[in-house]
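Re: the 387-residue chain
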Amino acid sequence: MYNIQTLNKIAKCGTDLFDAAKYNIADEIDNPEAIMVRSAAMHDMQFGSNLLAIGRAGAGTNNIPVDRCAEEGIVVFNTPGANANAVKELVITALLLGSRKIPEAMIWANGLKGNGAEVGKMVEKGKSQFVGPELYGKTLGIIGLGAIGVLVANAAAALGMNVIGYDPYLSVKTALRLDPSVKSVSDIKKVFAQADYITLHVPYNADTKGTVNAETLALCKDGVRIVNLARGELVDDAAIIAALESGKAAAYVTDFPNDNVLGVKGVVAMPHLGASTPEAEDNCAIMAAEELIDYVENGNIKNSVNYPNAEMTATGTKICIMHKNVPAILSQLTTILGNEKINIENMINKSKGDYSYTMIDAAGEVTDALSDAFKAVEGVIRVRVIK
């Protein structure tokens, strides 16, 4: 019986995928084999020796100690694309909110309560203060053309916008999904210089922190509108506030409000609504559950953020070895098997950064002693034997 701990409320359609004969699922479980999480902070958690994997029902993994998990042989999964449509729809909403001054207009309109028959006249007289541009014919710059970015690009193109995108890691598969009118550029500065609207769809890390800053904003057209539904840290607060005050930026729509930007004129703040739809929560829960089940039962990795993707069907005993990405480990592993007269029917080795994952289909009995011999190899982090 495998134990699965849930740190947040996970949609039932996801937890129902776990076979009740094999899995026990609860909020409070000691030393679980897997954890399902949405936004709960995990950096201060200590993980038990049984923990094999963490499934994040969502795309971002900033709430998880990804590097520490890699060191401990814990695979961290996310669910890229599962909430993409929900975020895409909110991005289009954000573009309109930032253009037409809709939040301010609604607050103003509600303030007319109590004026009786005069409300209609007051509306006609006061509406001019909320004039804003149409999206049609404007240029939208998209930084990050992943699962969400490509949907935003296509939706914006359908609305008649001119779309340019920047993504140094744009895959052929994603490029083929883009509307033919979308122009991909190789220099991010072109996005800042040409766009009337800019929307961010990249993960937050050391390289992307402060993507929108004083220097990049200086490249922009006057009155640029910035949409950030990805991560708050992608935009430098002081720089965007200064840009709004000077008129360099006309609006900043963010799904990650903080005390610095709240109340600033031109800021439209939403309470992290990007993936807050029942459909997105269901999709994320289902994908996370499927990833965990396949890894726990079969050792297969798909959509991991700290270990390479690797899948293999075995005819004999499957040996899954997590190790550092350094020379000579593979030769030592195969030598151990050879010394025990165990034939290798199939083997794959994949690497991701500092870590590698080796899967061996072994024709023969894999004893505890053999498993211990693998573990004794310098650089080996974890060994699993799946029969």
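The chain has three domains: 1-82+278-307, 84-269, 308-387.
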